[in-house]
Design a protein that fits this description.
By secondary structure, the chain is of the alpha+beta class. It has helices spanning about 10-25, 30-50, 70-80, 105-115; strands at about 50-60, 85-90, 95-105, 120-130. The termini are far apart.
């Protein structure tokens, strides 16, 4: 095992501790290890996807942060070929949610998502996707 230290906002640490308590974790370290493993698995899964996909990119950002809305719009313009729809929701005085429906080759969707993740002022980004059209296998009732 290796020891690391990290800085976290108090609110985030408090929320994490509450989740650990609710899930019955005995140590913060075990919870962090499990969270990191989950993050790595999701990242690896996203990078193993290939071909045409349809999906939703959910973005939560602090709209008071300088230039975040302009930067987000610029990225969307750069990837407009892959964007089918955008919905904007005012969540609170500080935060907004953008729900972006995307369709196209996963390598471009992945690139689009990662560029948004790197923006300052963006708090959370989640890509949810599935195969397109004939590639979707539906179970019979």
């Amino acid at each position: 095992m290796m020891r690391i230290s990290m800085s976290l906002p108090k609110k985030l640490l408090h929320e994490f501790d509450e989740v650990l308590k609710d899930r019955g974790y005995q140590s913060r370290s075990k919870g962090i290890r499990d969270a990191l493993k989950d993050y790595i698995v999701r990242y690896q899964w996203m990078n193993e996807m290939e071909g045409e996909r349809v999906g939703i990119v959910a973005v939560i950002y602090d709209h008071h942060y300088t230039d975040v809305m302009e930067d987000l719009t610029d990225i969307q313009h750069d990837y407009r070929k892959y964007i089918n729809a955008v919905m904007h929701v005012h969540m609170s005085e500080k935060y907004c949610l953008e729900v972006i429906v995307v369709k196209g080759d996963v390598k471009y969707i992945r690139s689009f998502t990662e560029k948004i993740m790197r923006l300052k002022g963006v708090e959370h980004v989640r890509l949810t996707s599935t195969a397109v059209g004939e590639n979707i296998e539906l179970e019979a009732d």
